[in-house]
Design goal:
This protein is of the alpha+beta class. 26% of the residues lie in helices and 23% in strands. Strands 7, 8, 10, 11 and 12 form a five-stranded antiparallel sheet that branches. It has a four-stranded antiparallel sheet with strand order 3-2-1-4, with no helix packed on it. The chain has a four-stranded parallel sheet with strand order 14-13-15-16.
Length: 411
């Protein structure tokens, strides 16, 4: 199509062209023929270039396909977290390498029980971490959250429970400088307690055992703040049946700081020594009588006669059966508890009984032994006798109380 236009004004960069209906068109001056000035008439032919248009469309489609294959086929994946090792107060977590495809990573965060514990440094390089300072025998939930330019991706929640003090399966030992026989003994002790032993210091190494503080592995353990202990620490755990403190087992620690117990198999109940002490006291009280010189400081004349003591004891015991072969009449039944006794025999004071008839030394000794046997029962030691309220005559009395009866003896 041919169009005739009149040049109205020509500048260095733009020329103003006028149509027949007096419309203005800005046109690049560089595209006009040379020596054009105001008032010149130029003819411009306009046509559509279909070939060039098809080539441009083809190039655009190829670019779109390249972008789709590069950025649209893959997307970042969710992290996969798992537990590598657990002890009484720490947990070692690990995960697969992070896959972000063509996206840009923003952060990789670790959450504990729903709260953010911190960000993982160098998330594209690190694949494990250690959580310390946990409570013993406590359940925790862990989760990884990956933030990228393509979105946020979270892992499944991992439930881990820390070990009890008696569970030694989480201990991981790395041996250091020591003699070969001692190393073999250490390996046997580690196997017996159910722990693990590794040759190199790792993130899950809990203790470094050696006799000398030198070597590359020792330096690595010190750098990672891993306790460096002597082989006796493993023996202490085996002896106690639980994990023991490392304070007394450092290389330069005082052996007196080690808390050596009786072990699991040698522990006694706190009631056993008391029971043995009561049995020994009971045996001693059943075979020996209390001599008169160890009684309270009272006059012997204030002691009751053997007759009154026997009468008091007879009220709590059934009468002996009478035998026809003895030839005598059956013994009369014992008096009832409410039946008054004969004042002349049961309530006679010791001074009256001694005044009526002289007492020989043999009778005096027999009477003291009888009173001692009445006051002290074979099943209860002398310490169970407690002072009762003062009597009416100014003296005191001893009272023994059990499930069967209660006997007061005046002194």
């Amino acid at each position: 199509m041919l169009i005739s236009l009149t040049v109205g004004k020509v500048d260095a960069g733009v020329a103003v062209l006028l149509t027949e209906d007096k419309r203005l068109i800005e046109f690049p001056s560089i595209l006009l023929p040379p020596f054009i000035s105001s008032g010149s008439i130029v003819d411009i032919t306009v046509s559509r270039n279909l070939a060039s248009e098809a080539a441009a469309q083809k190039s655009f489609q190829a670019l779109q396909s390249s972008i789709l294959s590069t950025y649209g086929q893959q997307s970042p994946g969710s992290p996969v977290i798992r537990c590598r090792n657990a002890t009484q107060t720490s947990v070692v977590l690990e995960w697969d390498p992070i896959a972000i495809a063509t996206a840009e990573i923003r952060s990789l965060s670790l959450y504990r029980n729903g709260s953010k514990a911190g960000n993982i440094p160098k998330p594209m390089e690190m694949t494990s971490t250690k959580m310390s300072g946990l409570a013993v025998d406590t359940e925790y939930n862990f989760q990884l959250v990956l933030r990228t330019s393509a979105g946020v991706y979270s892992s499944e929640k991992l439930t881990v429970r820390t070990h009890k003090m008696t569970d030694l399966s989480g201990i991981t030992v790395t041996p250091g400088m020591m003699a070969p026989p001692l190393r073999e003994s250490l390996s046997g002790a580690v196997d017996r307690i159910g722990a693990k032993i590794v040759e190199n210091v790792r993130i899950d190494t809990t203790h470094f055992v050696c006799m000398e503080g030198r070597g590359r592995e020792w330096e690595k353990a010190v750098e990672m703040n891993i306790p460096v202990v002597r082989p006796e620490w493993v023996e202490g755990c085996e002896r106690e049946g639980r994990i023991v403190g490392v304070r007394g087992y450092y290389l330069n620690a005082d052996p007196k700081l080690r808390q050596v117990g009786q072990g699991v198999g040698l522990q006694q109940s706190p009631q056993q020594p008391q029971q043995q002490r009561r049995e020994s006291q009971g045996q001693g009280s059943s075979t020996a009588s209390i001599p008169p010189n160890q009684l309270p400081n009272r006059s012997r004349q204030d002691l009751p006669t053997p007759t009154s003591a026997n009468n008091l004891r007879a009220t709590n015991q059934p009468p002996p059966p009478s035998s026809p072969s003895e030839g005598g009449s059956p013994a009369p039944p014992p008096p009832e508890k409410d039946t008054p006794r004969d004042v002349s025999t049961s309530q006679m004071s010791p001074s009256q009984s001694t005044a009526s008839a002289p007492v020989s030394p043999e009778a005096e000794s027999s009477r003291s032994q009888t009173i001692s046997s009445d006051r002290v029962d074979e099943q209860q030691p002398y310490q169970n006798l407690k002072p009762a309220n003062p009597g009416g005559d100014g003296g005191t009395s001893l009272r023994r109380q059990d499930s069967a009866s209660m006997v007061d003896v005046a002194l």
